[in-house]
Amino acid sequence: MKRYFVLLLILLNFSCDFDKFESEVYLPKIFEEGMVLQRDQKISVWGKGIPSKKVRVSVAGLMGSTEVLPDSTWSIKLPETKAGGPYVLKVNNQEIKDVYIGDVWVAGGQSNMEWALKSAVIGAEEEFQEGGFPEIRFFKVPQSYSAIELDDVVGGEWKVATPENMLDFSAVAWFFSKRNHLEKEVPVGIIESNWGGTPAEGWTSVAVLSGMNASYSEEAKDIQDNPTKWQEEVEANEKRREMRNLLVSKPDSLTALEVASLSYDDSKWKKIVLPKANPMQHIAWIRKVFKASADNATLHLPAIDQMAFIYLNGQFLHYKDWGAPMPEIEIPAESMNDGNNVITIRTINTWNNQPRVGESGEMYLTQGGKSISLEGVWSYSNDIVEPMLPKVEFLNWKPGMMYNAMIYPISKYAIKGAIWYQGESNAGRADEYHELFSAMISNWRRVWNIGDFPFLFVQLANFMERKSPQPDSDWAFLREAQTETLALPKTGMAVIIDIGEENDIHPKNKKDVGERLWIQARKVAFGEKILASGPVFESAVLEENSLILSFSEAGEGLKTSDGSDEVKGFIVGNGSNFKEVSAKIVDENIIKIDLDNPNISELRYAWADNPEVNLVNNLGLPAVPFRSNLGEK
């Protein structure tokens, strides 16, 4: 009888204890079906609830409980556990299903990290055809900004790597996550927090920036001291953005067909000459009448920046989205007139409000083996068909603004590390970038409070017109500042000086970028004893009329990527007077440069916006750009 009485007491106590965990709780948006939690680290779960009420969290056999604090917040850390899943995360009465435990990375930076697989990325079609991987998931933090630190991101959802979802995944992060998943055989979660065109100070706390002596410090201090004033401007700016986005989304269909028809009267429109002038602003409508025959034709108009709706003789032809390439458009004979035809384009550039259409020699139709030029006089209007756009400021660029809305709210979420691709928007301010970038990394590590987590970043690619020598290159100085950041512990840099594109700041080879970051991750994050970098300059010694250079990270030996006997990319000089020099590999890690004049003070390699280089190691990884005073390490 006594045994049954004790059992009854136990059951009653369990029932009473269970009743304590019935209250409603609120979770951050990142806690959602399909999520990935970090393995081998304590799992943080947090949110809001009713003060003094109990909260219990369980997942994968782990359990913890706490009480909601007087400020309505609560937080629980569960013990670390191994990779696995799917599990159900239970928080009081809530259940979040399809939860995996594996490796989680934050993918930050500007447009080259944001660049999606669907945007003409080399090899993307093969990735879509492969079908994706159900244990790779992406969470894209919506682009937002704030003058004050937010408790939560404004939206977002975990998406499984299916061919449909992968279209919008960061290409760099995809190729990185795929290698992580396949080689470590664990689920992988990518938290995308990136925004095209943004500078590093926007991703760093104003509390850090205000104490520095840099171009952004005074403004950072003002934001720190007057958050209410700045937040009011943020909200007003966002209302203007909402109105702008509503206006630019798509034209009224009936109006568009009327304006695009051959009979439309555009006599009150301005006249502009394309592509020479390109003076357009706001929602730009342009029209050009041309003569052709009623036969099949092909429209060739590859250069449009950014978005455009294209019509022919009152019929919709094509929509060109931001980041998407402009294809050759096949036009059936029934859409063409024998005689006068009119092409009409509605184009918008929400980046700088300066849409552009066409380049010289790249504006024409082909028909019957002949070319019909579209260059010359066009009719143009930006206020007759649709209203002009409200002015939207780049307040997200301001110090701390994106950090407050896109980094701080996720900083309690346990991660393996971060991958980062940014720097283009700080080129020209390289003198302050090393301190800024180092401060940003340290800032993130402090707020995550999980130690010096791995931070892996991409050095700027080669870009713009090829010039040599170019000792004053802003991009070269920015690359140097990035390299100097490797002084921080647990950092790694992927060099891509060999895969950029002269005419495109967004190289389409994102596979090599992601995989070079992964090689760094294997060494920095997972402790593998591997060669993860291209050749790194160690020293230069002047011997008579020759420079003898030694390199580390040569692997099985220095090589040239093109099989040439000559190593390209070296310049020497005094002050601002530089010239190219010929170099040759003379040993596994030694390069020799014969000098016409040994009276030089400086040596540089890959020192230009778009240098011609070919020095690699046996893995094909390119040498790290550098400059050095003669004889100095």
TrEMBL record:
GO terms, biological process: carbohydrate metabolic process
Domain (Sialate O-acetylesterase): residue spans on this chain: 396-506
Gene3D superfamilies for the chain: SGNH hydrolase
Enzyme Commission number(s): 3.1.1.53
InterPro entries, sorted: Galactose-bd-like_sf, SASA, SGNH_hydro_sf, SIAE
Presence of the UniProt keyword Transcription regulation in the record: no
Keywords, alphabetical: Hydrolase
Cited Pfam families: SASA
GO molecular function, one term: sialate O-acetylesterase activity
Record's protein name: Sialate O-acetylesterase
